[in-house]
Design a protein that fits this description.
single chain; alpha/beta; Rossmann fold; five-stranded parallel beta sheet; 12 strands; binds glyoxylic acid; glyoxylate reductase (NADPH) activity; D-isomer_2-hydroxyacid_DH; D-isomer_DH_CS1; NAD binding
Length: 334
Amino acid sequence: AKPRILVAQAIFPETVERLAQHFEVQANQDDVRWSPAELARQLADKDGALTTGAQRIDAALLAACPRLRVVANMAVGYNNFDVAAMTAAGVQGTNTPDVLTDTTADFGFALLMAAARRITEGERYLRAGQWKDWRYDLLAGSEVHGSTLGIIGMGRIGQGIARRAAHGFGMEVLYHNRTRLPPALEAECKARHVGKDVLLANADHVVLVLPYTPDNHHTIGAQELARMKPTATLVNIARGGIVDEAALAAALREGRLAAAGLDVFEGEPAVHPDLLTLPNVVLTPHIASATVATRRAMANLAADNLIAFFDGRGPLTPVNQLPGADEFLYQNGL
Ligand code: GLV
Ligand code: GLV
């Protein structure tokens, strides 16, 4: 019998059709938002799943799904996986690195530009009919080219942002990461490794592109915001929990930080109500990887992972290593 696969949220119909050539597929194409209990019920008789980052795969769910062998996340981030619990249960996890790197780096830069140059604030002003005349200081923002960029989390997306900044905008690039890049890569990105405090104090703009783990919950809180320049902008394209949203809203409201650009939020799809009232924050609904081409590539890679896994070829982009599996180079962060 064909393995049974659950597609947990709506994806491209072509991807569902492709999966159906290999598997018995049940797909949530109506995009019903399932509770954890409903997800466990839907998954109880399945051998594999395609998830989108909005489904939590933890010990409680795994206990209810004894047949489950593989979960392919259609996202590069996989903080929705309890990786230790999955490994303990013998469940393979995969993600979608590489295919979204440059698209996501583009968007990080777009948010930086929009926040620093007050683009969405200007559009709201214009649409509201408030534009009466030229004015010397109308929506005057902060400089992007030639300024200093701080990147926290220097994986592939961080490196993509560094290249854009250094080569396209003549920016000085500082970065902070758990591990230092090899010298050749540092040189190519024209990026200098510094401590987090040095980065926060010196950067004119800070972009967050680090994976969300318990260790970096609220990596940016009141203390870190206090170290930043009051003229600085903060961009988050990683995960909402990396920033203390209440502390950020207070800093933006009180003029201790000039602007922010946020694509991710602590309680997605809910947004902290204070952020919604502030003019100096650009808010987007978790769309950094959302181009048609990239979303297709992500869906295809997630499907390819499931197909390769059940073919016995092993997963293409694993995030955990099951006992007895071939060793892989662990490089599947952002
Ligand atoms: C999106 O947030 C992703 O992790 O791919
Ligand atoms: C972030 O990408 C890290 O490796 O710390």
